[in-house]
């Protein structure tokens, strides 16, 4: 089991399965909401338990983003058509044992940084 929490601790979560698809997102929405890039992984909804009140933002017609209404930590991303939920790797308690598998939406990345870690990139 992996655990995580927001900055103020009002929201905590437990991941009861092996996280999948660990990635770093460079899309404009993730950069705007997080202040830079957003690293996440996902599990089936049934394998994620959340304690506390998550505020949901309808980021698009296809997905929503969950954050702490107290400290503002961006914690979750959920596509409406999927039965999985992505969670912020930065919110996890150490050790995680997770390794980034890919960078996504790199065509949208900011011009102020380079991706030079050798991990596969997807436009």
Automatic annotation (TrEMBL):
<keyword id="KW-0479">Metal-binding</keyword>
<feature type="domain" description="CENP-V/GFA">
    <location>
        <begin position="2"/>
        <end position="114"/>
    </location>
</feature>
<dbReference type="InterPro" id="IPR006913">
    <property type="entry name" value="CENP-V/GFA"/>
</dbReference>
<keyword id="KW-0862">Zinc</keyword>
<comment type="similarity">
    <text>Belongs to the Gfa family.</text>
</comment>
<protein>
    <submittedName>
        <fullName>Glutathione-dependent formaldehyde-activating enzyme</fullName>
    </submittedName>
</protein>
<dbReference type="GO" id="GO:0016846">
    <property type="term" value="F:carbon-sulfur lyase activity"/>
</dbReference>
<keyword id="KW-0456">Lyase</keyword>
<dbReference type="InterPro" id="IPR011057">
    <property type="entry name" value="Mss4-like_sf"/>
</dbReference>
<dbReference type="GO" id="GO:0046872">
    <property type="term" value="F:metal ion binding"/>
</dbReference>
<dbReference type="Pfam" id="PF04828">
    <property type="entry name" value="GFA"/>
</dbReference>
């Amino acid at each position: 089991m992996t655990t995580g929490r927001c900055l103020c601790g009002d929201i905590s979560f437990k991941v009861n399965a092996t996280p999948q698809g660990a990635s770093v997102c460079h899309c404009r929405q993730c950069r705007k909401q997080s202040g830079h890039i957003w690293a996440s992984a996902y599990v089936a909804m049934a394998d994620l338990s959340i304690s506390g009140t998550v505020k949901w933002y309808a980021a698009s017609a296809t997905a929503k983003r969950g954050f702490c209404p107290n400290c503002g930590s961006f914690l979750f991303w959920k596509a409406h058509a999927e039965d999985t939920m992505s969670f912020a790797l930065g919110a996890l308690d150490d050790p995680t044992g997770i390794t980034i598998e890919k960078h996504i939406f790199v065509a949208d990345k900011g011009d102020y940084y380079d991706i030079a870690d050798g991990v596969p990139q997807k436009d």
